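Sync notes, pocket subgroup
Present: LS, DG
LS reminded everyone that the earlier model was apo-only. Rerun requested with fe (ii) ion included. Inputs:
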Amino acid sequence: MTTGPTRNPSNLSNEEREKRMWEKLQKGEAIETVDEMSDEYYDNLTNLMLQQADSELAGAFGYVPWIMKAPTTEEKLAVANIVKDEVRHARAMYRLLADIGVDAESHVARHDYTLRVDLKADELKDKRAADDKRVNIFYYTIDSWTDFIMFQFCMDRGAGHQLEDVRRSSYGPWRREIERIFKEETMHVSHGDFWVRKLAFDRSTRSEVQKALDSWYPRTMNIFGKPRTSHNTLYRKFGLKARDNDEVRKGFTDEIRLRCSECGLRLPDWKPDWEKMEEDGVVSG
Ligand SMILES: [Fe+2]
Ligand SMILES: [Fe+2]
C-alpha cells in the first residue's frame, strides 16, 4: 500500500492505536481518524475502500460509450448523469482514502480503468484481469443497450446489497459518505428496472433480455465471495462488514427473483464451485 505523509501523524505506536480502537469499537463508537486505527484495521479498511473506488471509476468508463449509443436523447442524458454519478462516487472514495494517507492519485495513474476483456466463451468467474482492485464484473464489455440496462438491474442491485453493510461500518467518514452514494445507486437500479420491464414485456425484445440476464446474473452472483471466509470474519470483527458473504448474496437473490417473476423472466441456475473460488467478496458501485 502506497501511503502519503498523513499516515499516523501523531506517531502513536500500533499498540496504543489498537488499544484506542478497541475501546471505541467496544462502546459501539465510530473510528474517525488514523490515530484510532491499528495497522491491521487500516490495511483492511483501505483494501475495501480501494475496491469500491476502483469499481466506481471502471464502471463510469464502461458506461461512457452508452451516452452516444443510448436509443433516445433523453436516455443519452440519463446515461451521462449516471456516468457523472459514478465519477463523483470514485472521487469521493479516493478523497476519503487520501484523507487517511493513501496516495490515491498515484494509484489511479498506475492503472488502466478502460481495460476490458471479452471472454464470451471463457468467463472470468471469480478471477481478475489486471492488478487494479475493481470488482471483476467491471472487466466485461457492455455490448448492447440491453446489456447496459441488465448491468444496472443485476450489478447495481448487487452493489446496493453490499453497500448496505457500509451503512453500518465502524469507519465514520465512509459510513457518512455512503448515504449519498446509496441514494444515487438506488436511482440507477430503478432505471434498470424500468427498462428491463419495458423490454421484457415487448415480444420483439423479450428473448434478448432473457439472454442478457443469463450472462449478467451469474457474473453478479460471483461478486459476493465464498461463505465463511477468513477475510469476511476479520472484516466483521473490525465492524467493516456486518454479514457473511452468503447472507448478502441471499438478500440479492431473493430480491432479483421477485423482480424477474414480475417481468416473466427466468432466473438462471447458478452453481458455485466453492473449492475453486477465491475468498474475497467485494464492494462496488
Ligand atoms: Fe451505479
Ligand atoms: Fe456508484
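DG: The pocket of fe (ii) ion (ligand 2) is lined by residues 56, 86, 89, 181, 185, 285 (CB under 6 Å).
LS: Residues 34-263 form a domain with the Ferritin fold (CATH 1.20.1260.10).
Action: DG to write up.
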